[in-house]
Write a structure and sequence with these properties.
Number of domains: 1
Largest sheet: 3 strands, antiparallel
CATH superfamily: P-loop containing nucleotide triphosphate hydrolases
Strand order of the largest sheet: 3-4-5
Oligomer: single chain
Number of helices: 9
Strand content: 5-15%
Distance between the termini: 40 Å
Helix content: 40-55%
Shape: globular
Length: 217
């Protein structure tokens, strides 16, 4: 972590921290009063986004397996069951939020962990940022007019000093169109895990197969 004066707040982020088994204990050792911000979204969409990001780094994209082939165990005879989902694939494992959060709660109390609704961060960014400001002990200053929607990527852009700052080329990529039956199998697989997560944080996010389909077209 960089050096900072008492009147400064240092924020460091990485998508790998949440599911890495060793990180919670190491962060607690660094600073047991550390405040943790966790951004979650529909795990089905998160898996598709993960796949899209990985695919973008491949030189020969046509040789890379489709999302459907990665997400499901097609050799599984019981194709009507959620057991056909490839739960060993990293893109799926990361979305089982309650298993990862359980490790964090072994090292940090709930009041030091703030959960951000990733879907609302897109549709109502100011409201979600205001909650983060309060969590960090800051006076909320961010307003809805500080954001605008990118007409191409449909993600929020930040308005600062009269200029819009939008996501770079490596963010907000268009997702591949995924078969509806595969989306449904994934939604069915994640449903009990989502409920366990909601129970753990005493909140509920409204994730559904219908929303999954609408987001990938």
């Amino acid at each position: 972590m960089p050096l900072a004066s008492p009147d400064k707040i240092v924020i460091e982020k990485s998508p790998a921290y949440f599911h890495n088994k060793d990180v919670p204990a190491r962060i607690k050792q660094l600073n047991p009063k550390m405040k943790i911000i966790l951004v979650v979204r529909d795990p089905v969409i998160r898996a598709i986004s993960d796949y899209t990001q990985t695919l973008s780094k491949r030189k020969y994209k046509v040789l890379h397996p489709s999302f459907e082939k990665m997400a499901l165990n097609w050799s599984n005879a019981d194709a009507t069951s959620t057991s056909i989902v490839n739960s060993h694939w990293g893109a799926i494992k990361v979305g089982i939020y309650h298993k990862h959060l359980k490790r964090w709660l072994q090292h940090f109390p709930p009041d030091q962990i703030h959960i951000v609704d990733g879907e609302k961060l897109i549709t109502s960014p100011a409201a979600e940022v205001n909650q983060v400001e309060k969590f960090l002990g800051l006076k909320p200053v961010v307003k809805p007019e500080d954001f605008a929607i990118d007409p191409h990527k449909h993600f929020p852009c930040v308005r600062a000093k009269g200029e819009l700052h939008c996501l770079g080329a490596t963010k907000g990529r268009k997702h591949p169109k995924v078969q509806v039956k595969v989306l449904q199998k994934l939604a069915d697989f994640f449903e009990p895990h989502n409920l366990e997560f909601f129970k753990m944080i005493n909140r509920k996010f409204y994730w559904s197969p219908e929303r999954n389909v609408s987001l990938i077209h």
